[in-house]
Specification:
- By secondary structure, the protein is of the alpha+beta class.
- It has 2 domains: 91 residues, Ribosomal Protein S4 Delta 41, Chain A, domain 1; 88 residues, RNA-binding S4 domain (Structural Genomics Hypothetical 15.5 Kd Protein In mrcA-pckA Intergenic Region, Chain A), CATH 3.10.290.
- Helices cover 43% and strands 8% of the residues.
- The chain is built from 10 helices and 5 strands, in the order H-H-H-H-H-H-H-H-E-E-E-H-E-E-H.
- Strands 2-1-3-5-4 form a 5-stranded antiparallel sheet, with helices on one face.
């Protein structure tokens, strides 16, 4: 499984916003954006003098979406191609594909502190979909699927810690907890209004439509 292995906080600094790639640390005073709110290798003075072109704006938005969901370029292109083939708004279809990834669903449910941690837990076989173990973070869930923590993994410290600290996280309406906090059902495909990721997906469409 290919993944980014460089400094995580560097990605947030490059985009100039919190991408919440490190869980609770991103909401604390330790966040790199608080200490150095400018791109790596840059200075505050140079940043304010720089003019960004339309292409640069589109590129940065595309990179931001990619990094939020932890997807590398080749896979992201495949997601966009699939979204373009679907009927409806391409940008919304792209976000729906990314939201329906199993690692994102696990994070949305509060069973991991970040999407990166969710990918690790899934790869190690701690989650099941419809009572079948799934170890592929990019697995696409569908309406009606039931996502659950494996029976032998319910007392795993990373999962219990994430579940206890996610009490204030809002559960999206397209997911529904069943029975206990370790099991949930995918109710529907999320609409754009139900996806709270602060991105301008139209710029991503413009980038790939050049």
């Amino acid at each position: 499984m290919a993944r980014y292995s460089g400094p995580t906080c560097r990605l947030c600094r490059r985009e100039g916003v919190r991408l919440y790639l490190k869980g609770e640390r991103c909401s604390s005073a330790k966040c790199a954006i608080e200490k150095r709110p400018y791109p790596p290798g840059d200075t505050p003075q140079r940043r304010f003098r720089r003019r960004v072109s339309d292409y640069g704006t589109q590129l940065r938005e595309k990179q931001k979406v990619r990094r939020i969901y932890g997807v590398l370029e080749r896979q992201f292109r495949r997601y966009f191609a699939e979204a373009a083939r679907r009927s409806g708004v391409t940008g919304e279809a792209l976000l729906q594909l990314l939201e329906m990834r199993l690692d994102n669903v696990v994070w949305r449910l509060g069973l991991a502190s970040s999407r990166a941690q969710a990918r690790i837990l899934i790869t190690h076989g701690h989650f099941a979909v419809n009572d079948r173990q799934v170890s592929i973070p990019s697995y696409q869930v569908r309406p009606g699927d039931v996502v659950a923590v494996g029976e032998s993994s319910r007392s795993l410290p990373p999962i219990t810690a994430a579940a206890s600290s996610a009490g204030g996280r809002r559960l999206p309406p397209w997911l529904q907890v069943e029975g206990d906090a370790m099991t949930a059902k995918v109710v529907s495909v999320p609409t754009r209004a139900e996806i709270d990721t602060q991105v301008q997906e139209g710029l991503v469409v413009e980038y790939y439509s050049r």
